[in-house]
Design goal:
Blueprint (H helix, E strand, L loop, with lengths): L1 H30 L7 E15 L5 E16 L1 H11 L3 E11 L5 E12 L12 E2 L2 E2 L18 E5 L4 E13 L2 E15 L12 H8 L2 E12 L6 E13 L10 E11 L1 H48 L5
Helix pairs in contact: 1-4
Length: about 325
């Protein structure tokens, strides 16, 4: 009887020992991926900001708050179409950045399509990849870092300039009880495209720029607090400046007219929700990557020890 039990325990030990590396090095790389149907909404605010009054003499003025609503929706149909030719798991995110002033009226609205590898978050260049309707070719990451983010610099895509630049690893931080990596990116003054959707009806940005000789310039300091396990930012902030130069801004001091200037932060309720969501996903990733394989390996050792102990007892001869 003891021998049968020891054989059962030995078989269970072998099973656990085989399953542990299989789960870690075979199942995890295939199962850890961004779902194609993800939906997320985030509200950001810039308090005590400067905003151009388009209907009040085209002059910048101080406002209590500018609100930025960002929605992200996974396009399952588009991802399946691209997967057929790419031969790998693809995620397509259709995002919309909707900016409103203190009166609740729209300031600008910028759509974006981001196509990337579901496992590595590396961009995939496909038809439809765009910012504000303009085709782009991303290099580096955007929105999300890879699973098990490393404490190093990454190349990060800035949607305003349509270019990529290093986002620098600064060091470890604590944010709402989580150990995170902190990154910063500085984008210098760069000429950018006017949004295609502006607060004044009937204005075509390209025609407006050509006919008036007015150009839009932008710079920012972007800050990210990233969970190193999931690669998801638990917090993001930006210090943004936008200004018009030349044309209608020629009469302003130094020929510059502030369009927007402010420190954009995540609204408190959305910040708490984001942290809770990332903590939940972090547990799932660690369970697949670390906890389950470690538990199986430890369980296999325990079962092996019990099997050997029972086998030794069964072979021990009784003494007279």
């Amino acid at each position: 009887m003891r021998r049968r039990a020891s054989l059962v325990l030995l078989a269970a030990a072998v099973f656990c020992a085989a399953l542990a590396p299989l789960l870690r090095w075979y199942a995890y790389p295939r199962l850890a991926k961004i779902p194609p149907n993800q939906y997320q909404e985030v509200v950001l605010e810039a308090k005590d900001a400067t905003l151009l009054d388009y209907t009040g003499g085209m002059q910048p003025k101080k406002v209590d708050k500018v609100t930025i609503i960002q929605t992200l929706k996974g396009n399952v149909e588009a991802s399946r179409e691209i997967e057929a030719s790419a031969g790998r798991d693809v995620v397509v995110w259709d995002t919309l950045t909707h900016i409103v002033g203190p009166d609740g009226k729209m300031v600008s609205q910028i759509p974006e399509r981001y196509v990337f590898d579901a496992h590595t978050q590396a961009p995939i260049h496909a038809t439809g990849e765009s910012v504000d309707g303009d085709p782009v070719r991303r290099e580096g990451i955007e929105f999300k870092w890879p699973f098990f983010t490393e404490p190093r610099d990454y190349l990060y895509f800035d949607a305003q300039t349509r270019t990529s630049a290093p986002v620098h690893y600064v060091g470890p931080r604590r944010f709402r009880g989580m150990d995170v990596y902190y990154y910063e990116q500085d984008v210098p003054w760069t000429k950018v495209s006017l949004p295609k959707k502006m607060p004044i009806e009937g204005i075509d940005p390209a025609t407006f720029e050509q006919s008036t000789g007015t150009s839009l310039w932008y710079r920012t300091k972007a800050m990210f607090w990233v969970d190193p396990v999931t690669g998801a930012p638990v917090n993001a902030e930006q210090v943004i400046e936008q200004e018009m130069r030349g044309g209608i801004a020629a009469g302003a001091p130094e020929g510059r007219l502030t369009v927007f200037a402010g420190h954009v932060t995540m609204r408190e309720d959305y910040s708490r929700h984001t942290v809770a969501l990332v903590k939940s996903n972090r547990t799932k990733v660690l369970a697949l990557h670390t906890y389950a394989p470690a538990a199986l390996a430890a369980g296999g050792l325990v079962l092996l020890g019990l099997a050997l102990w029972l086998e030794a007892r069964g072979r021990r001869r009784p003494t007279a």
